[in-house]
Amino acid sequence: MKRLFGPIAVMVVGIMLSGCAGLIVASGATVGVAAYQERGIEGAAQDTKLATQIRMSYLEASSALTTHVGIEVYESRVLLTGLVSEEQHRADAVKLAWTVIGVKDVINEIQLRTEEGVVEFAYDAWISTQLSSKLTFDEAILSINYSIETVNSVIYLIGIAQDQAELDRVMGHAYSIDRVRKVISHVRVKDPGT
To answer: Closest by alpha carbon to 144, among 13, 14, 41?
Structure first.
């Protein structure tokens, strides 16, 4: 029995350590990305903390909020997107987001569901991926400073633009994608002195 336990213990520890190594590498990559964002590592960490606290409050309150409301936090500004079946769910989502200490603004872009299908969801994911790719490969755009959500072919943007010209390029890319009905920007243009 002791002979069997040794190799099994080594395998379990090896598997656990390999998972930790992946987690450490992923965490390192996240910290590296945050360091290049305008909001910096501390700002990104604060935004992640706020988003987690909002998700936890949604989880405690309602499964509808957890599964149907998207949360993006940038500079302590909360962008809520998604599709819900009742107006009360929208109100609850906003109210709960405001209860989290440190939230500076809550932007309610949650839509009421008229029809929801797998096809629309797939198109929304495709639109977000297309825009993300366009921003990444445009050398005149610091794409790392933008968060993108798409709901019902409406693109929602939040983040920081280096200047109005950069934001105009982002908007141009967004409107150039097939099936996009509208683009709503909550992007802040960086102050020239910073």
So the answer is: 41
Mean pLDDT, residues 13-23: 39
CATH number, position 66: 3.30.1340.30
* The residue to which tokens 């809520």 are assigned: 80
Q: In the numeric block, which tokens belong to residue 28?
A: 């390192």
Same domain, 79 and 128: no
Please report the pLDDT score of residue 119 as a whole number: 61
Locate 64 and state its tokens: 């509808």
Q: Which of 112, 146, 173 is the last residue of a domain?
A: 112
Q: Is the pLDDT of residue 24 over 70?
A: no
- What is the pLDDT at residue 176? 97
Residue 146 shares a structural domain with residue 78: no
Residue 95 lies in a domain: yes
Which structural domain, as residue segments, surrounds residue 180?
Answer: 118-189
What is the number of domains present in the chain?
2
This prediction has a pTM of 0.72
* 38-72 confidence digits (pLDDT tens): 778 898 899 999 999 999 999 999 878 989 999 99
String of DSSP letters for 37-102: STTHHHHHHHHHHHHHHHHHHHHHH-HHHHHHEEEEEETTEEEEEEEES-HHHHHHHHHHHHTSTT
Kind and range of the H or E element at 146?
strand 146-151
